[in-house]
Amino acid sequence: MKFIAAAKLPLLLERLGRHSQVYAPVAVDGRVWLSPWTGEDIAGGYVNPVNSLKTLVYPQTEAVLEFEGGETDVTVREASPPAPQVIFGGRPCDAAGLDLIARVFMEGPFVDELFRRRREATTIMTVACRQAAPSCFCRAMGLSPASERGSDVLFFPGPEGYLVEALTEAGEQILEQAAGLLDDATGDQARRACQELPVPLAGDLNTVRLTPEEGFEHPYWEHLARRCRSCGTCTYLCPTCYCTALFDVTRGTRGRRLRGWDCCQFKDFLLMAGGHNARPQKKQRVRNRFLHKLSYHPANYGEQACVGCGRCVDNCPVCLHMAGVLKDLGEVERA
Ligand code: SF4
Ligand code: SF4
Questions:
Q1: What is the pTM assigned to this prediction?
Q2: Torsion angles phi and psi, residue 73, rounded to 5
Q3: pLDDT tens digits for range 97-150
Q4: Ligand 1: does its nearest atom lie under 6 Å from the Cβ of 128?
Q5: Which residues contact ligand 2 via a Cβ below 6 A?
Q6: Hey, which residues does 156 pair with through a beta bridge?
Q7: From ligand 2's centre to the CA of 117, what distance in Å?
């Protein structure tokens, strides 16, 4: 393991910024965002940034292609390839969430090229958590404040700086670029890195599974639907939600095809061109959100589509969140 003094971290980011766009945690109006870094103070003392790593690898809106021409003569250009980027300061739960999405888009016969190109142009440097919010439940989902999944480099923060561990080849390259800024970690520093990690809500919620046969018509969904406001906050903030829609923006004879996040909680999410809506009732939409994460995704990938980041816990205006639902569903299964 290596060690980098806190005072040298900006030097490292500056060095990485010569060849890549660097993102780092920056405080904006009292909240910490992973933001393009241009030398600002690097925020500390936050639990999780407002935006997860997903937002920088799978952006809210991105160009798929550009087109130009008339009715018979159309020129189509692919979107420009993404620039290399290095992201410092995301949390291990969000890196695991990004890896979960990467399995959807990059495994199997159909690879999403837009996602693949940006993921492969991205190096992820996560920082292990030294504190947990009451809403965190990564351990209950089989992760931990220092999970390695999805990270290229893992930083363990301490009083004087960070222990640094490369986890992938891309991570090794970062350490090579950091030559002269890193020292060998002392035994004492390594011991301290393994201690003091917080213990967010434990338990084994990641074993809760709901089969559609058992759960589809349960009155519980009606109960949840009466509370849900269909605002979409939960899915937009979630590091593992990935639904999108395509739309064209045109000006004269030129235009761009864009891909933007969509939300299964919106009334028109499954509204077809012919006027049929496959999920017109709120109960169906709420049910879909939880069945997707707890039934359909596990059936396809062998794991729940939740990493316990706590964003839906903190931000749902009616406290309708995954931690509560997982606990309730445990009860439903035992009933
Ligand atoms: S954040 Fe809460 S109220 Fe808004 S859509 Fe999600 S569950 Fe419903
Ligand atoms: S469902 Fe909620 S707790 Fe789970 S990953 Fe999404 S936002 Fe985080």
A1: 0.92
A2: -130, 95
A3: 999 999 999 998 899 999 999 999 999 999 999 888 888 889 888 899 999 999
A4: no
A5: 97, 237-240, 306-312, 322
A6: 163
A7: 25
